[in-house]
Design brief:
Layout (H helix, E strand, L loop, with lengths): L1 E7 L5 E7 L11 H19 L4 E6 L2 E6 L5 H25 L4 E7 L3
Parallel strand pairs: 1-5
Antiparallel strand pairs: 1-2, 2-4, 3-4
Helix pairs in contact: 1-2
């Protein structure tokens, strides 16, 4: 199962996310849920970095995390959070379509 943890501050901004595990829906390397989750998360992180909302991106087999840097202008932060919100929507849609047997989304409030 894939576990996604999305950490938000009290303003609703994503301050970190982690993705861990494998869905187990299909054979390794051909699992459509893992592929979809990877594509959505890589796109969100790629967009953030492209617009200058950089941060620490860690990637290992079965694990990824992104912790954005706090120091950016408000316009960049707003654009990046829209992308991260879209990522959350996409991941929740996968969870709704395939079930919590394969992917679980946890949204947590983190005081910063």
């Amino acid at each position: 199962m894939i576990n996604v943890k999305i950490f938000k501050n009290n303003k609703g901004e994503t301050v970190k996310f982690t993705v861990s595990g494998h869905a187990g829906y299909g054979p390794f390397g051909k699992d459509i849920i893992c592929a979809a989750v990877s594509a959505i998360t890589y796109t969100a992180v790629g967009y953030c970095k492209e617009i200058g909302y950089d941060g620490q991106f860690v990637e290992e087999d079965g694990y990824a995390s992104f912790t954005p840097e706090a120091v950016v202008d408000e316009q960049t932060k707003t654009r990046a959070n829209a992308s991260l919100d879209a990522m959350c929507i996409g991941l929740r849609q996968i969870e709704a379509s395939y079930g919590k047997k394969y992917i679980r989304i946890h949204e947590l409030i983190q005081e910063v």
